[in-house]
Amino acid sequence: MTNAEVYRFQCGHEQCRSQVFAPTKDDLEVLIAQHLKEVHSVNKVTDTLMSYIESTCVTVVPA
Ligand SMILES: [Zn+2]
């Protein structure tokens, strides 16, 4: 079975607006953590921060 949808993270940071795509939410969380670390110097992404990001910046889009 192929995925008909992908998870998209759209960075809400001013002047960043990066988009990251992943096939699963778990994969996306890893990529979000990487993005925050590399681009925004956030070394520790807490559960609270991750849930906030998921509710505001993550959408499911057709692949
Ligand atoms: Zn960003």
Helix content: 40-55%
Biggest β-sheet: strands ordered side by side in the sheet? 2-1-3
Which value, in Å, is the CA radius of gyration? Answer: 12 Å
Shape annotation: globular
* Counted beta strands: 3
Summarize the helix and strand pattern as letters. EEHHE
Largest beta-sheet details = 3 strands, antiparallel
Bin the strand percentage: 15-25%
User: What small molecules does this complex bind?
Assistant: zinc ion
How many structural domains in the coordinates? 1
Q: Supply the number of helical segments.
A: 2
Low-confidence stretches: none
Q: What class, by secondary structure content?
A: alpha+beta
Mean pLDDT: 94
Report, as a whole number of angstroms, the end-to-end distance: 13 Å
List keywords for this structure.
alpha+beta, globular, binds zinc ion, 3-stranded antiparallel beta sheet
Walk me through what this model shows.
The protein has 63 residues and is α+β, with helices and mostly antiparallel strands. It contains two helices and three strands; from the N terminus they run ββααβ. Strands 2-1-3 form a three-stranded antiparallel β-sheet. The model has no long low-confidence stretch (mean pLDDT 94). The structure holds zinc ion. Zinc ion (ZN) binds at residues 11, 13, 16, 18, 35, 39-40.
